[in-house]
Sequence to fold (326 residues):
Amino acid sequence: MSGRRTGQGGPRVVTLGESMIVLNPATAGPLRHVQTFHRSLAGAESNVAIGLVRLGVTTGWVSRLGDDEFGRYALATLRGEGVDVSRVIIDDAAPTAVYFKELRAGRDPAVYYYRRGSAASRLGPADIGEEYVAGAELLHVTGITPALSDSCARAVFTAIEIARAAGVKVSFDPNYRSKLWSSEQARTTMRQIARQADIVMPGIAEAELLTGHQDPARAAAALVAAGAGLAVVKLGAAGALVAGGETTTPQNVPGFAVTPVDSIGAGDAFAAAFLAGILSGQSPIAAARQGNSAGAMATQVVGDWEGMPEGDALAAFMAGREAAAR
Fold:
């Protein structure tokens, strides 16, 4: 595959996957009636990367972007947020992907992807730098990337293999996308990843998909029994449930009551803050509380990553006070 790299680096956390241009409608309702859209950037893995950097954790993102204006925008945005993009490949043979949100009153937004044949779908094992991954403390992957193409799936498993051989911890957020693959395909692949992960962070439906258990506590326990060192089931507004590690029985960590503006990206904010907490030496319970806080804060801002909190703001939110404005 053609392409050129963008630089060099050595962050504490490495993640890989596709970032897309997202077009947010200015008004709610069917897209055929929307006249104006606001452009931004989206992608579960790059969202987590931004969230980690804002909390003081150096993070690198591995991917491919098209040699086009959208690719240049994505690269500039991530670099501007402090994410290491030294392993990003600019691909002159495929475009940067795009997706549209459709706002629906009282419900989560609907999304429409235009990502088939994208530059990121051409990511492969050869794009995963062994020294880059092996030099990190943690590798973060999701269930989105292996759904994009066979080469992307091989890239994910190559990264995991490198990480495990080097003693690098692996975290996994299933992030199941039914528009990308069937539940049967997803279950098979994601179970393989979960068994090799030190941290697994599914939502309620994803936990059931992986384990067959509707009860989050039973699902979390099953994930730990299957090989995950730590299972954290995200419960949305209700918080999170933690199993494994120092927690002998699944323990609920309550959420924070807020009125959401945009729920997309909340799970990524949770993942970033939870991982930042674990990397700083917090207990899984304390890290989950921090994750709940970040997830709640992210829902207060429209956009996939724009509401990711910085450390001072997160601490102030958790303490129930406003961050200093001046």
